[in-house]
Amino acid sequence: MADSVNGGYPTALGASTPTSITLLGHDLADEVMGKVGFGELAFWLATQRRPTPGETRVFEAVLAALADHGFTPTAIVTRLTYLSAPDSVQGALAAGLLGGGSRFLGVTEDSGRFLHDVLTSLDGPPPDDDAGWDAVALDVVSAQRTAARRIPGLGHHVHKEVDPRTPRLFQIAEEEGLLGPHLSLFAAIGRVHPRVLGRTLPLNGAGVCGAALADLGLPMELLRGFALLARTAGLIGQLAEELRRPVANEIFLSVDLNHRSVSPEPHPPGGSHG
Hints:
Blueprint: H1 2-7, E1 14-16, E2 21-23, E3 26-27, H2 28-32, H3 38-47, H4 53-66, H5 73-84, H6 89-98, H7 106-120, H8 130-146, H9 165-175, H10 181-197, H11 205-215, H12 223-244, H13 248-256
Helix pairs in contact: 4-9, 4-11, 4-12, 5-6, 5-12, 5-13, 6-12, 7-10, 7-11, 8-10, 9-11, 10-11
């Protein structure tokens, strides 16, 4: 710590003097505000390189795809927390964001990591045609099936045939020349999995978002963070709608007035308490 103190605390992000503020090496007031969009800035902050217009378009398409999905658990808990503590907007937002896990929002990270792990395990360069990608995907899906493990990003509880976000994000990435190996492998999984699983499942939007973020070169460790960034905007929208058309109290009362008392069910001796 002494070295850090003696040498200062270096940062390429925000810094201030009595007369100026810099961000990413640029004057915040003159060179960033009103000139750099929020999506572009978020990408720039995470990578410390300014994205190209095409990268910004793909990145912002991902943010739009993940922003809000209606009355999901994250939205409901945000509204209920605001009902309980209307003096704590930050608490309501935090409650919703804390629900971003393996079933909601976390799939973006899980898919990106899964695809990335497959790609880094390949012997030699990635395939350069659909047939090559299909062969890789067939091995991957077969291995997951044998191990009784699910494939992140495959299947959706509402969109049983096509998640409308998926083809659109593939289209945008291709238009911008950014359809890279993660998206290519994900597309191949979509093509070949019926041969192994015996049924056809859609590639879901959270999964394609993870593949797109990975193709943009964003850190695997931060993929869920970008999903949470997107959902923050959606949760603010949920709170704004709660102010205009409140439903949280009705949700609370629907449970409170319809619960029923049952006898306790003790755990069996030696059973799991997890």
